[in-house]
Design a protein that fits this description.
By secondary structure, the chain is an alpha+beta fold. The protein contains ten helices and eight strands.
């Protein structure tokens, strides 16, 4: 029955190359990280449970229009002495009874119907919240994957820099021995070497933190990470991206359903002030000790009624529903503008990252030429040791800037997809079994009885969920 909640992805709305066909041996790909985060996320499990709770809200609302049947049983024993004018007698009588009552709401001016529809809108809003959480989980996995790669490359860069500075210090000592440089040059080389060791320690600490984040998000420690696939093509026109985000972002859709749910609760509050019609009945059997026959009686009644005065609670409920509606409308305004801002910010970050990447590549080429030239000139005595160390530091800074820019470009591109509502397992064509939000709803929406066939199916599903 667990399969009722999951289905294999057969397609996607967005074709993003995630490197499935180019998986390196014993290497974790970005797709592996995304699949791991989707299957491992406790946050997704939490919000799936919240969605099932919202589904039950529809069942609870629907039960108001279904018959309510109750039973009761009791036993009573009366004893004592009954005094008369001329004599007295002992009283010892036992009675027992059993009763069956039933009621059915025939008409409530539309209150129950509005409540049911409001609950359905809440379910739709909660489903979109789940999609938004899914986007957060996948984006965090991308950031964790790229974070490990960035930290690993920084460690390798720092290690290489340490080797070069060690060579520079050795060369400075050799030149000092022959009188070509002063003790100051040697001290400068020693200081830069100590600084490089400190930078390497920081880079190694960053790598440990990045690996811990990856383990937390993906569910296992990172192995050797393969090169990420090509940066996805995304919409870079701000106006067009914003228009798409307003239409399809799950947070926007969720708040729109929340507004509809609040408006329907106003109708329910209005209907609560109007008359209702109820059909009720009762069947009761009594039996007394010493009596030859029991007594069975019952009744069937139709009742019409409505509130005349309820201490102002009904009016307060109406005002509260209207205030809640206004709050949701205000939230819709906030979410719309936040969504548009997030899109613009993400596209701006992407453009800046690409510009930094291009600039860093040019900077690396120039810094590498400059470093080689300065080092050659230093061997001829035309440059000082400080000049060589400064040139090497500029090259190191340029290479570090390129690594950061590459990671920033990648994360920014996927952030653009996230702000547009496109960073989902379906859109990314992830090879995962996706949670089906409609399966549980279809089982519970009609408020099935415990011993019904549908209720038995529901029990099996709940047991399957508990095994997870």
């Amino acid at each position: 029955m667990k399969a009722m909640f999951i289905q294999t992805v057969k397609g996607g709305a967005l074709a993003l190359a995630l490197g499935f066909s180019a998986v390196q041996s014993q290497a974790d790909t970005l797709a592996d990280a995304l699949v791991g985060s989707y299957n491992h996320s406790g946050l997704l499990d939490q919000n799936r449970a919240l969605l099932r709770a919202a589904d039950e809200g529809v069942a609870i609302a629907a039960s108001a229009l279904l018959p309510i049947i109750q039973w009761s049983a009791g036993a009573q024993r009366d004893f004592g002495r009954q005094l008369g004018t001329t004599s007295s007698s002992t009283v010892d009588v036992g009675t027992s009874n059993i009763a069956l009552t039933a009621s059915l709401l025939l008409y409530d001016s539309g209150s129950s119907a509005a409540t049911i529809e409001s609950s359905k809108e809440t379910v739709l809003a909660t489903r979109q919240t789940l999609v938004a959480i899914e986007q957060q989980v996948l984006l965090r996995a991308i950031e964790a994957f790229m974070g490990v790669r960035q930290a690993s490359e920084f460690v390798a860069l720092r290690q290489n820099n340490l080797r070069l500075l060690t060579q520079e210090l050795r060369a400075a000592n050799d030149r000092f021995e022959v009188g070509e440089v002063t003790r100051t040059d040697v001290a400068l080389a020693q200081a830069r070497l100590a600084q490089a060791r400190s930078g390497l320690a920081d880079a190694q600490a960053d790598l440990l933190r990045a690996r811990a984040e990856y383990t937390n998000v993906v569910g296992h420690k990172p192995g050797r990470l393969s090169s990420p696939p090509k940066v996805p093509n995304v919409e870079t026109n701000v106006a067009s991206a914003q228009a798409q985000a307003v239409r399809r972002h799950p947070q926007m859709i969720s708040v729109q359903h929340s507004v509809s749910a609040a408006e329907l609760l106003i109708l329910a509050a209005e209907a609560d002030m109007k008359p209702s019609i109820t059909l009720s009945g009762r069947l009761r059997a009594n039996n007394s000790t010493g009596a030859s026959n029991g007594v069975t009686n019952g009744f069937v009644a139709v009742e019409v009624g409505g509130p005349l005065y309820a201490g102002g609670s009904l009016s307060a409920a109406m005002r509260r529903a209207m205030a809640s509606r206004d709050a949701e409308r205000g939230n819709l305004h906030v979410v719309r503008h936040d969504t548009q801002q997030n899109v613009a910010s993400a596209i701006a970050s992407l453009g800046a990252a690409r510009a930094r990447l291009q600039a860093s590549e040019r900077q690396i080429r120039a810094a590498r030429v400059a470093f080689r030239g300065v080092r050659e000139e230093a061997t001829l005595g035309a440059r000082t040791t400080l000049d060589v160390l400064d040139a090497e530091q500029e090259l190191l800074d340029a290479e570090a800037a390129r690594i950061s820019a590459e990671v920033d470009e990648y994360v920014a591109a996927y952030t653009v997809l996230s702000t547009m509502g496109l960073l989902t397992a379906t859109s990314l064509r992830l090879n995962v079994q996706q949670y089906d939000p409609t399966a549980y709803y279809n089982l519970v929406k009609d408020a099935p009885a415990v011993r019904s066939k549908q209720g038995q199916k529901l029990d099996k599903v709940l047991r399957a969920l508990q095994k997870d």
